[in-house]
Amino acid sequence: MSIESIVKQRAGEQCELCSSTDDLKVYEVPASPDSTAASCVLVCEKCRSEIEDAETLDQNHWRCLNDSMWSQEPAVQVMAYRMLKRLSSETWAQDLLDMLYLEEDKIEWAEKGLLADEDKPRDVNGVELKKGDDVTIIKDLPVKGSSMVIKQGTAVRGVNLTDDPKHIQGKVNGQTMFIIAEYCRKK
């Protein structure tokens, strides 16, 4: 029996995260300890696209994790944990994350996948920043070594990435400077 047929049978032909029955595909959970059906989940196209691209995240769609986080399948638990972590700025998601119990090996697996995402600069909402993006500063930022302050609401156009994923580079008032990514919001 193939991995796809095992996962489909286990899931009852519905998305293991949101219960949708439309456009289902097997998704191998990143940083899995092996390549078996136990490291895969059956997901709909909406869930898969939002897992892979944080910019398309529909926060209300992920309220389905309230049910799926209690699954007995380790891969489903890990994906629920990761998505709740990604949405942890939302009160409801943090509440669910606080209730979620995972064994140590499952937490380790879930965290490994989250660490792989940490090498990318992200804005205050967790959206990945890319070269050329436009951002808005969300709080007054003092510039080290000067008396200048970058004011909240300042637009920075066409940012560049740096070697450090916590920083981006952009021009503010005609001067190129490094800016902490988490103090920006992507436009």
TrEMBL record:
PhnA protein N-terminal proteobacterial domain sequence ranges: 8-52
Spell out the InterPro entries in the cross-references. PhnaA_N_proteobac, YjdM_C
Q: Which domain of life is it from?
A: Bacteria
Fetch the Pfam families from UniProt.
YjdM
PANTHER family, per database record:
PROTEIN YJDM, PROTEIN YJDM-RELATED
- Name recorded for this polypeptide: PhnA protein N-terminal proteobacterial domain-containing protein
State the species of origin: Photobacterium aquae
